[in-house]
Amino acid sequence: MNFRTLHLILSTAILTSVSAHAQQTSNQVQIVGQMRNVMWKGQLHGNIHLDTIANKKNLYGLGPVEYLSGEVLIIDGKSYRSEVVSDTAMKVEETYDLKAPFFGYANIARWSERTLPASIQTLQQLEQYLDKETKDSPRPFMFKLAGVVEQGTIHVVNLPKGSKVSSPGEAHKGQVNYQVKNKPSEIIGFFSTEHKAIFTHHDTYLHMHLITADRQKMGHLDEVLFKKGTMKLYLPIK
């Protein structure tokens, strides 16, 4: 084996290793702040300005707006904020000029696609399915769903200005719930068995935000009934 051949083999091996490491790193979820510090300690200020996230390519993320004045969703590099207008209307705008008290995000370039089984229609069923299907996958992870939501409830936090928070009940004061019916939608979700009260509520492994395909509604997903046979599930490729 001559020097040129050896050099080529070593260079290829190094590039492959670097590429694999970059892919693994890019899929990793970064979490800033903690839900429990907001809910129980009243730390409502922003811990991250979204525009400071350097790499916005293939970026996905979710969380609330600082001082619990709205919801945030980043999907494929585009950042959206929703805020309450009335009990029946909200405003959704595209912007990175946002701060969040806690936020989770990841850069994911490649996804594996599958049709969600028709038997999986609710959040509880989805949680069990993801837990079973990803036992050997790195956790925590982001995932996405796309399809028709037959019936869903999303909320947008809307804490009155100047409010003090020392419990989840106080944190959700002013929150408005909105209904989603028979709407093509996209959902970005976070799954972990180790982040209760950090990035998921104490009784679930999931934290999910939904945005309708027409970009008229976006919020934290509380309840859902997926339309059978329409939902596609996307998981990060290892």
Automatic annotation (TrEMBL):
Residue intervals passing through the bilayer: none
GO biological process, alphabetically ordered: acetoin biosynthetic process
Position of the signal peptide: 1-22
Keywords, alphabetical: Acetoin biosynthesis, Decarboxylase, Lyase, Signal
Pathway annotation: Polyol metabolism; (R,R)-butane-2,3-diol biosynthesis; (R,R)-butane-2,3-diol from pyruvate: step 2/3
SUPFAM superfamilies from the UniProt entry: AF0104/ALDC/Ptd012-like
An example Gene Ontology molecular-function term: acetolactate decarboxylase activity
Keyword Glycosyltransferase: no
Pfam families referenced in this protein's UniProt entry, alphabetically: AAL_decarboxy
Reactions this protein catalyses: (2S)-2-acetolactate + H(+) = (R)-acetoin + CO2
Entry's EC annotation: 4.1.1.5
InterPro entries attached to this UniProt entry: Acetolactate_a_deCO2ase (IPR005128)
Enzymatic class: lyase
Family: Belongs to the alpha-acetolactate decarboxylase family.
Protein name: Alpha-acetolactate decarboxylase
Organism field: Rufibacter immobilis
